[in-house]
Hints:
The complex is a heterodimer.
Chain A: E1 3-14, E2 22-33, E3 37-41, H1 48-55, E4 63-68, E5 71-72, H2 78-88, E6 89-93, H3 104-115, H4 120-133, H5 149-161, E7 167-171, H6 179-194, E8 198-202, H7 206-210, E9 214-219, E10 222-228, H8 239-252
Parallel strand pairs in A: 3-8, 3-9, 6-7, 7-8
Antiparallel strand pairs in A: 1-2, 1-4, 4-5, 9-10
Chain B: H1 2-12, H2 14-52, E1 57-62, H3 67-76, E2 80-91, E3 96-97, E4 109-113, E5 136-140, H4 141-147, E6 154-158, E7 163-172, E8 184-189, H5 191-200, E9 204-212, H6 218-226, E10 236-238, H7 239-282, H8 284-292, H9 297-338, H10 345-370, H11 378-384, H12 407-418, H13 424-448, E11 463-468, H14 473-486, E12 490-504, E13 510-518, E14 529-530, E15 538-542, H15 543-549, E16 556-561, E17 564-574, E18 584-586, E19 595-604, H16 610-620, E20 625-628, H17 629-673, H18 675-683, H19 688-727, H20 740-763, H21 771-776
Parallel strand pairs in B: 4-8, 5-7, 13-18, 15-17
Antiparallel strand pairs in B: 1-9, 1-10, 2-4, 2-9, 3-6, 5-8, 6-7, 11-19, 11-20, 12-13, 12-16, 12-19, 14-17, 15-18, 16-17
Amino acid sequence: MSVILEAKSLSKSVQVNGQQPQPILKDVDLQIKQGEFVTVMGPSGSGKSTLLYNISGMDRATGGEVQFQGKKLTALSEKELSKLRLSSMGFIFQHIHLLKSLNILDNIVLSGFMAKKMPREQVKKRAAELMERVGISSLIDHDITQASGGQLQRVAICRALINSPDILFGDEPTGALNSKSSNDILDILHEINESGTTIMVVTHDSKVAAKSERVLFMVDGSIVAEKHLGKYKRGSDQLSQREQELHTWLTAQGF
Amino acid sequence: MLTSMLKKDMLRKKSITATLFIFIFLASVLMASGAKMIVELTQSIQHLFTEAKAPHAVQMHAGALNEAEIEQWARDNELVEHLQIVEMLNVDGSQLFLQEESEKASVMDISFVTQSEQFDYLLNLQSELVQVGEGSIAVPVYYKSQYGLEIGDQVKFDTGRYSATYTISDFVRDAQMNPALVHSKRFVISEQDFEKLTRVIQEREYLIEFRLHDFSMLKAFTTQFQNSALPQQGPFVDYSLFQLLNGLGDGIIAAVIILISIILNLIAILCIRFTMLATMEEDYREIGVMKAIGMTPSMIKRLYMSKYVALALTAAIAGYAASFAVYRLFTQNIALYMGTAPQTALHALVPLVAIALIFGMIVLFSYMVLRRFDRISAVEAIRSGSTGEAGRSKLKMSIHKNKSLSVPLLLAVQDGWQRMKLFRLLFFVFAISAFIVIVPVNFYNTMNSPSFISYMGIGNSDIRIDLRHTSDIKERYAQLLQTVEQDAAVQSHAALVTSQFKIANDEGSYDNLSVETGDLDVFPLEYMEGRAPQTMQEIALSYTNSSELGKSIGDSVVLQVEGQDQSFTISGIYQDITNGGRTAKARFAANEDNILWYVVSLDVRDHSQLDSIMKQYEEQFAPAKVTNLEGYLEQTLGNTVERLQLLVVVGIVIAVFLSLLITALFMKMLIAKDTSEIAILRSIGFSLSNVRVKYLSLMLMILLLAVVIGTICSNTFGEALVGMVMASFGASNIRFVIDPMQAYVWSPLLLFAVVSLTALGSLASIRKTSISRSIAE
């Protein structure tokens, strides 16, 4: 499998109130292969989300470089980065971040209309299909105030997938959901991954990590360990075994 | 703690605080300056009139005079305290040289006088009685400000046969004839020079001046005088009119300054309301916490109020202080024409009260906005963290239904639609900006258009020849008429004579009425109501006369014609801003005993010959005033048009300034408010330029709507407003002559350019915001 995303000596420091710059990421090296499902875990403040935002080009790193599909992200202009986010990347966040001014369908079609990859009618059709796929087709004419947290996260997933991205980034996508909704979202993510989309998720939740292929563990801005769990097959009874395996590993990491 | 909180909050919102400060500061500077100007104006006029012992009533009279008869009448009249007859030697403008060129083109009636003996003193710039030695002259301040004359400059009087040069030794403040609006000016010379000139200048005019024992008896005195057999060949003017004329120009400017200040203050108040609501929205959770820990609403209110009270107080005090420097600019004219009255407590007190009013309004409105705190529930605030106050309308437009509009534009429309309430202030200020650009521009173009002639009580002709009163006026008129009739170059002509008649008033006595008689059909006039008189029993009145007499079409008025009372039916009412707006038109014969002036209007056959024909008449009938339509308009309205031009510039500057400030303020607030939304858009692939297009389109959409409404208001309310102002001059029914390029293209384009540049400048800051941080918050 080819490498879709690669970070070399990626670092990020921030300066607060004119003090000495504080390093958040320290020379991180990372490769993510096409079709892989990678989770990043670690204690609060370890730099997980910073890694996600810097590796996806949402934030500018202070050192090192990132390559996405052979393109050097760190050298791209703001406009080129936006274009890439629009057409090749999808994002889901813990706080769902939908536009309050738009209804559910409009939130989903918005980036489809922007990308102009296909006619607007087709974008609408794809939105309807995605909603059907994640089980929220009944909400098509609804306002975002009429949906639950779990339903809204599914809307966010539809929005992220509208332009058929090559990679989907998630920052604690189940962090604000109850366990039922959380499980549903995980199944959807798994299904998306099965259909070929690469996924990189930052999480505190070992259940999320247990369904991923590879788990990275971060401490103080560096990846200190990684665990290959292999592809998870839906419906098999291996989940509890994977969770157990992961739990033991995480304990060994002091988590 | 309060000071440090205030400091922190102001630093956090530097540009918003600065914008609010500027609005309140400017409102205060203008309010204090306008108030000071009014105090200065009224006190200076009072001072000048007291020092000059201005006459209570003056009858101007051109022609022969029996002084003994007038003195006798005055002695017999118990209302009269003093009588004074001032002899004036009328100088033709072409014979007086204040600079290289003569005053030939001037609209002013110039005369030489000596210092008055008992009252109506002519004062110098030190407000002392002007004393002029032989060979010296004191020139009205009007010419000092007009030409920048200095003491020591030369004034030449040259008739061709007689020539004299005088050195300017002083400038004259003349309570009666000071303002530019008054078209008579008195130059003071020595008794000796005056004596010499009486042999050279034949034209005399007299001012029959009265001071009364009791000024409140003026009305009674006026009636008695006008019903007497005393000479009255000329206008009758009184003390109140002098005061009004002296105060009018600067009074209007002061009123405009105060009006602008009120508008600025209103905008400041609306901005404060807007920022307060936005801050409350931001701090909603904190307010909930404050309530939860037991702070009472009034304590929280005090906390929030303190910021705006501090801001308003600082800005108002700074504005008051700055007004001391600025108001001199506005009162220069007053100081020159009327002198400076001794400073009184009122000079400091009135502006202070005005400023306190500004401050009080801000505090009151802030307090009213903060009443919302009472309604905030602690639990709800902590839980939801949102007031919903500046929230969005539930009505959402469907983006997915749109087939072609670009997405940023769609979002702009959607945003504008949903947050209509939020954008009201912006809309309001933009509409005001459009209004204050378009109304002066339209008014300027109206006054500059040849069709303005219809407000001047005359018809449209190629050439107009004015013959003013001279001793041989009748002969010159007959000669002129004969020449015109025989002139092959003239296609058509009309001769109109203005003479004075007596008109019966409600009190059983008579007033004077100037009536233009003759052929009214050749160059027909546009009538506001009704039509021109067609029979000898009809009369048309100017708007001012008809409203003062309370007469409308079909009513009748009684005039004394050939010594007998005759009734005339009013056939039409027309607009006329000339001669104080008090004129009338009729077909009956002129009053030969009391002719004021003659006008011969003519159309020429060949327009390319217009200039040479004008020159020919000018030379042949000097000192007749020969003008074409443009020339007449230019001479009569030139000064006003120039002032209007200034008003246009001032309007544009204010509109640009207002739009710039409000756009900057709004963009800052909007960007701060929408940080999270902007971050979301950028995270899903909107580029910075897409975001800019969204906000810029939003601003321009609001501006477009405001410009449309502003333009409609300009052409309706604006026109009515100008009509109200002009009604006092004699034209109430002003119809704007609109230059579509200026009003509908250039003016809006200017506002669009200002708003676009300001919005783009403000939007530059979104580049600096981190998407990840905004998303994480």
